[in-house]
Amino acid sequence: MRPENEQDLVDVVRGATGPLMVRGGGTRGIGRPGAGAVLETGGLSGVHLYEPGALTLVAGAGTPLVEVEAMLAAEGQRLPFEPMDHRGLLGGPGEPTLGGMVAANASGPRRVQAGACRDSLIGVRFVDGTGALVKNGGRVMKNVTGYDLVKLMAGSWGTLGVLSAVSFKLLPRPETSTTLLVGGLGAEQAVALMAAALGSPWEVTGAAHLPDGRTALRIEGFAASVAYRAGALSQFLKQDMTRIEGGASDDLWRAVRDVAAFHGRPGDVWRLSVKPSDAPALAARAGGEALFDWGGGLVWLLLAEGTDLRARLGAFAGHATLIRGSVETRRRIAPFQPEVPAIAALTRGLRARFDPRGILNPGLMD
User: Fold this and answer.
1) 146 pLDDT exceeds 70?
2) Are 198 and 186 a contacting pair, CB within 8 Å?
């Protein structure tokens, strides 16, 4: 099923007699395997409103992300949160869409400075599991009516409603980018260095420790400012650093964003969200290969197929999500971090409110 407009979407959901597997561009096959009629949102495409002067975008949920990014680039603007492209990591086809990006709360290295996808999302339109059309938020940040519901849809993976349109605040694109690289640091040293850089006044917009042992720090903005801040940061950190500029810097952070180091390689991929100070010890306990992003707050792990990472780590403060694994593994191991009882009760209540029939991506996050 591929509705071509919002009313079609309402009719499809309202008339559903069984489970619906909601699909945007089909690039993020994450979560428990499920069965049901496929509901594609690609027909809900197109830019509804773009006001460069107001740094505001409203578009259909099925709009391809690449089209939006090209349009924004032509005006010297961007989505602030550097959304990840999962295709290389998951080995899937398809085309990332705005709705899929929001449903996954897909956010890249710039999250440490600009926030996550949900922090730039200012409005949503969606159809809930009863077939009712819901509108929340607006076109500017000062309109905060229903703002918590707007944020709730980011990261809900289509279990609360099928997005039909989304609204974002935008930011100007930086004139240039410079990355400072330090080699030879262990994980603990790298996390300490990244923490110092992120806590400095030099406005670092990316901090990652790569599997090859390099630690990368990014500075963006006007060329003269970037040159000054990069020099000042180097002196502040008292490290022997090399620099890469412009396109080479952008390519490195695109590889960090999309976890390119693990593309096409056998094994499961896990995503740990933890306190940066806990990251080195947890990565060591996990084994395998690690990439640290967000200053250590996000750890990507490449492990042997079928590894139950949570059982290996034991109790820890944070979340472990199985991003890439076989169908059998995703049936055996809960891909999403099990919730504590109080949060699980809230989740059940929300799903009962927005999808009382339990037809939207049932079981995907269980």
Assistant:
1) no
2) no
pLDDT at 81 over 60: yes
Give the rounded distance of the alpha carbon of 270 from its chain centre. Answer: 14
Written as one letter, the residue type at 81 is F
- The CATH class, in words, for 176-257 is alpha beta
Quote the CA–CA distance of 59 and 62 in Å, as a whole number. Answer: 8
List Cα–Cα distances, 366 to 33, 144, 202, 360, in angstroms: 10, 31, 42, 13
Token pair for residue 254?
A: 């695109």
Contact 298/292 with Cβ under 8 angstroms? Answer: yes
Single pTM value for the model: 0.93
- The structural domains of the chain, with segments of one domain joined by +, span 6-172, 176-257, 260-332
Q: Which residues pair with 40 in a beta bridge?
A: 23
Take residue 34 and report the two structure tokens written for it.
Answer: 């499920």
- Classify residue 22 as exposed, middle or buried by CB count within 10 Å of its CB (0-12, 13-18, 19+): buried
pLDDT at residue 148 above 80? no
Interacting residues of 138 by C-beta distance below 8 A, sequence separation 6+? 122, 123, 145, 167
Strands 204-209 vs 242-245: parallel, antiparallel or unpaired: unpaired
Between CA 4 and CA 62 the distance in angstroms is 10
> Any idea which residue has 């099923």 for tokens?
1
What is the CATH T-level fold of the domain 6-172, as seen in this structure? Answer: 3.30.465
Neighbours of 18 (CB within 10 A): 10
In contact, 109 and 249? CB cutoff 8 Å: no
Give the model's pLDDT for residue 147.
41
Which of 41-70 are b and which e, b meaning 16 or more Cβ less than 10 Å from the residue's Cβ? bbebbeeeebeeeebbbbbbbbbbbebbee
